[in-house]
Amino acid sequence: MASMKTTFLLALIFLLLQTEFISLEVIWSNSSAGNSTVGCIDMEREALLKFKEGLDDPSRTLSSRVGEDCCNWLGVGCSNRTGNIIKLDLNGQLLCDQMSASNINWLSGLTSLKYLNLNGVNLSEATTDWLQTVNLLPSLLELHLSNCELHYLPQSFPSVNFTSLSVLDLSLNVFNPSSIPQWVFNFTSLTKLGLRQCNLKGSIPKIAKGNICNLRNLDLSENYNLSGEITEFFQALSECSNSSLEELYLGINQLIGNIPHSLGNLKRLRVLQLYGNTFSGSIPSSIQNLSCLEILSLEDNKMNGTIPESIGQLSELRELRLSGNYWQGIMTETHFLNLTKLSYFSLSSSSSNLLVFNVTHDWIPPFSLKYVKILDCQLNSTFPAWLRTQKELTKIHLVNTAISDTISNCLWNLSSQLVKLDLSHNKLMGNLPKSLNFSFLLRVFLDFNHLEGSLPLWPHVTELSLRNNSLSGTIPIRIGQEMLFLKALDLSGNFLIGSIPSSINEITYLRSLLLSNNYLSGNIDYHWERMPGLVYIDLSKNNLSGGIPSSMCSLHQLMWLQLSNNNFSGNLSLCLKFISSKSLMTLDLGENILSGPIPEWIGERLSSIKILSLRGNMLFGKIPKQLCNITCIHVLDLAQNNFSGSIPSCFGSLVGDKYFDGIIFEEITAHMDFVVKGRQYEFYNQISIVNLMDFSKNSLSGEIPTELTNLTFLNSLNLSWNHLTGIIPENIGALR
Ligand SMILES: *[C@@H]1O[C@H](CO)[C@@H](O)[C@H](O)[C@H]1NC(C)=O
Ligand SMILES: *[C@@H]1O[C@H](CO)[C@@H](O)[C@H](O)[C@H]1NC(C)=O
Ligand SMILES: *[C@@H]1O[C@H](CO)[C@@H](O)[C@H](O)[C@H]1NC(C)=O
Ligand SMILES: *[C@@H]1O[C@H](CO)[C@@H](O)[C@H](O)[C@H]1NC(C)=O
Ligand SMILES: *[C@@H]1O[C@H](CO)[C@@H](O)[C@H](O)[C@H]1NC(C)=O
Ligand SMILES: *[C@@H]1O[C@H](CO)[C@@H](O)[C@H](O)[C@H]1NC(C)=O
Ligand SMILES: *[C@@H]1O[C@H](CO)[C@@H](O)[C@H](O)[C@H]1NC(C)=O
Ligand SMILES: *[C@@H]1O[C@H](CO)[C@@H](O)[C@H](O)[C@H]1NC(C)=O
Ligand SMILES: *[C@@H]1O[C@H](CO)[C@@H](O)[C@H](O)[C@H]1NC(C)=O
Ligand SMILES: *[C@@H]1O[C@H](CO)[C@@H](O)[C@H](O)[C@H]1NC(C)=O
Ligand SMILES: *[C@@H]1O[C@H](CO)[C@@H](O)[C@H](O)[C@H]1NC(C)=O
Ligand SMILES: *[C@@H]1O[C@H](CO)[C@@H](O)[C@H](O)[C@H]1NC(C)=O
């Protein structure tokens, strides 16, 4: 316990040293800093006691407060001349639990307070007029109220009392949606303003000339709805004869506009973080003046133009993040000339093939990267030789970069330190190394290449995608023993033969298994129950046969099951009954030789299903009206069976599900074929836009129910090749 307190105290002192506050006269309880010569002022002690009474302090942190001299209490600092409390630091993150205070009116008793830190203290019940209370503290220099569950951010304010404020941190409070109030920019001595994740909307207010010239750190990031031009903001900054700005965080908002030439005036800027907005235009050449710049993050905007070579002069640059824009032109060695400290580099262009990365074969870069991400731009068709010089890489993404070469050995030599390798969508050739000593938790994506040979066994790999290559041979029998840590395996679209080894049962963490579009045969009678985490199974387009095993019934997390285009046989009611999963979103059993009727319980059992395809089997009997319970259906394909009887009129009450996005989890690209208006289409990811109902090529009879005209959400309704009679509902043309 005692050592915990010491740690706490040390943390406080550390915090103190980190602030500018060291110049002030502070005495810390039980620290060697000294002693209060004057002692605690009675009124102020009363105020603190009042605070303590109103405090819900489960960890009893403040119970250590003993003695008359409140200057010696934990978290309290006094002036050594007057004895006034000038510092109150209850940074909740330093305390183990969340504390909450029901009231902060006691603060008004501490009129000399210069430093107030209540970070992490739950003030949600502490009134809406927290600002009025704070306004009674005219000496305040630093106000830290981050993560305090404040909800009310006053927009206007008669007159600010604490005019010398230097630090204002209100980050991580989910305010009721509000604009950035004008008053936060009214402090001429403001050096740090923190409004990250505050749920702010609207635009950055007009800033009076000179009001932000002392600002060193401005954080408005992750407000999502902050919008409008930033030009005026940069204008206000450029009016400073000597701007102090060192760190600017505006990421993840909806800000627009060009980055003006005056950016170059911010000579002390170290961090420029603008990612995830809608900034346009090009990078101003004045950027070369930012000689202190360490982090430049422009990812995911709408910027275009060529990237100025002068960027290569920024010798302090550690992170250069340029991906997700519309760059064009050629990047050469000059762009990296002096970037000796670069460790993170990302580049991509959404303007197809307009960006070329052209360096000489024998280029030795001045940097040593840990992370490289180059997407959607042209590298030389040979494997980039300069990568050989990069010995510290842990994450490599070279995706859709037109490399047509074998994978360089230099890359495999890094295998023990890599945590992610993504070389998908190139034209890589050759065989993969049979065995490699990859590091733990490695994620490997080599999809959409021309790789050949047999499947390697790489222990410690957690995700492996080799989709759409030319791998051949069988899946190694020992895959389960050797690749025990796999969570995701995608071998779809290769030339694999033989049966799926039963050792896959050993891969108990497996979440997704995608083996579609190969030549796999045999049955799938495995112990599926040993892989209870399976969410996604796609074995479609193979030559698999036998029944759908009952052990699949225990896959309670299963969301996606595709077994279409195989030779699975047996009775549908038997195999389906086991899948009790409420989470099942897609069941595709089309183009097999399943027989028997559709069980009546299917509607209730699978009520959350979005895609149900039983197309092209030998099913018969009536279409049960219980299927109407699946109201949020997107695709109901019963075509090419032998169903008889009439179409239940309740189908008119199906409504679809506009929130269905077809995404299971990020790593998985859902893939499915659909027959729309008689033609087969292949869909990747945009599966959610497909809405169709197909009952064609059965033996259905009776009248077409007029209710079907209600199904306006459908893209396609096919009832052809049946024995249906009566009038085709006249509104049927209203379908999209
Ligand atoms: C009070 O603080 C000042 C300035 O930090 C220091 O010079 C002085 O020695 C301190 N007085 C005592 C009694 O600790
Ligand atoms: C501070 O010191 C006093 C005696 O000098 C001691 O009784 C008290 O427990 C100490 N407080 C802390 C938090 O260490
Ligand atoms: C603080 O001053 C009081 C009274 O002058 C004295 O008893 C105490 O030992 C001093 N504490 C420290 C840590 O110097
Ligand atoms: C903060 O306090 C309020 C009111 O006491 C409570 O409802 C809320 O859950 C607390 N927040 C957290 C994160 O504990
Ligand atoms: C400014 O602070 C003083 C001292 O606490 C207080 O008396 C006065 O009412 C405050 N003014 C406003 C507008 O809150
Ligand atoms: C902020 O400054 C503007 C103009 O400089 C002034 O009109 C306004 O009253 C000030 N607001 C506060 C709360 O002081
Ligand atoms: C950049 O985009 C703007 C429109 O946002 C366009 O007017 C301009 O011509 C583009 N510049 C280049 C170099 O493509
Ligand atoms: C950039 O590198 C070149 C060649 O290595 C060197 O002459 C120049 O001084 C460097 N410039 C800066 C700003 O570091
Ligand atoms: C790449 O650079 C070489 C020589 O530096 C040049 O000959 C070639 O044309 C350039 N390629 C492209 C696509 O710009
Ligand atoms: C690609 O690299 C080769 C060999 O290093 C070189 O001869 C060729 O000029 C490069 N092509 C381009 C377009 O840069
Ligand atoms: C299924 O639909 C029927 C008739 O519309 C209804 O009575 C029943 O409650 C529904 N069951 C479920 C589970 O939604
Ligand atoms: C569907 O259409 C029929 C007539 O065509 C209509 O009576 C009924 O209210 C509509 N709505 C639903 C949900 O069935």
Automatic annotation (TrEMBL):
<feature type="signal peptide">
    <location>
        <begin position="1"/>
        <end position="24"/>
    </location>
</feature>
<dbReference type="InterPro" id="IPR032675">
    <property type="entry name" value="LRR_dom_sf"/>
</dbReference>
<feature type="domain" description="Leucine-rich repeat-containing N-terminal plant-type">
    <location>
        <begin position="42"/>
        <end position="79"/>
    </location>
</feature>
<keyword id="KW-0675">Receptor</keyword>
<keyword id="KW-0677">Repeat</keyword>
<dbReference type="InterPro" id="IPR055414">
    <property type="entry name" value="LRR_R13L4/SHOC2-like"/>
</dbReference>
<keyword id="KW-0433">Leucine-rich repeat</keyword>
<dbReference type="InterPro" id="IPR013210">
    <property type="entry name" value="LRR_N_plant-typ"/>
</dbReference>
<keyword id="KW-1133">Transmembrane helix</keyword>
<dbReference type="Pfam" id="PF00560">
    <property type="entry name" value="LRR_1"/>
</dbReference>
<comment type="similarity">
    <text>Belongs to the RLP family.</text>
</comment>
<keyword id="KW-0325">Glycoprotein</keyword>
<keyword id="KW-0472">Membrane</keyword>
<dbReference type="GO" id="GO:0005886">
    <property type="term" value="C:plasma membrane"/>
</dbReference>
<protein>
    <recommendedName>
        <fullName>Leucine-rich repeat-containing N-terminal plant-type domain-containing protein</fullName>
    </recommendedName>
</protein>
<dbReference type="InterPro" id="IPR001611">
    <property type="entry name" value="Leu-rich_rpt"/>
</dbReference>
<dbReference type="Pfam" id="PF08263">
    <property type="entry name" value="LRRNT_2"/>
</dbReference>
<dbReference type="InterPro" id="IPR046956">
    <property type="entry name" value="RLP23-like"/>
</dbReference>
<dbReference type="Pfam" id="PF23598">
    <property type="entry name" value="LRR_14"/>
</dbReference>
<dbReference type="InterPro" id="IPR003591">
    <property type="entry name" value="Leu-rich_rpt_typical-subtyp"/>
</dbReference>
<keyword id="KW-0812">Transmembrane</keyword>
<keyword id="KW-1003">Cell membrane</keyword>
<feature type="domain" description="Disease resistance R13L4/SHOC-2-like LRR">
    <location>
        <begin position="255"/>
        <end position="398"/>
    </location>
</feature>
<dbReference type="Pfam" id="PF13855">
    <property type="entry name" value="LRR_8"/>
</dbReference>
<keyword id="KW-0732">Signal</keyword>
